[in-house]
Amino acid sequence: MAIAHINVVADPRPGSRGYLKWYWTKGPGLAKWRLSPHPWTALRRHLLGKVPTQYLNQTVSAWFEDVFGYPPSARAGKNPIGKG
Q1: What pLDDT, in 10s, does the model give residues 6-22?
Q2: Residue 51 backbone phi and psi in degrees, to 5
Q3: How far apart are CA 62 and CA 1, in angstroms?
Q4: What is this structure's pTM?
């Protein structure tokens, strides 16, 4: 898989710049983290090694917001399992 830039447009064509984003936000990868009790952490774990470390947290937060429609910081204090 190619390394994706944070602002890349999701693209389902394998090998395209947006494939990684598509895979994790709209494709089969979405099911691997979306329903996790801690989805931000789960997505980060999956993207570790696929996204450069200096962009990892920013990318995870942006893709989290793309999927859920709100930033991960909006969950703070509302997670019955622990910190959001």
Answers
A1: 667 888 888 888 899 99
A2: -125, 135
A3: 19
A4: 0.80
How far apart CA 15 and CA 20 sit, in angstroms, is 9
C-alpha closest to that of 63 among 2, 1, 6, 5? 6
H-type alpha helices, the chain: 19-25, 39-47, 53-68
Number of domains in the chain: 1
Structure-token pair, residue 19: 């494939």
Instruction: Say if CB 65 and CB 71 are below 8 A apart.
Output: yes
- Can you give the residue range of the structural domain that contains 42? 1-84
Low-confidence ranges of the chain (pLDDT < 50): 1-2, 84
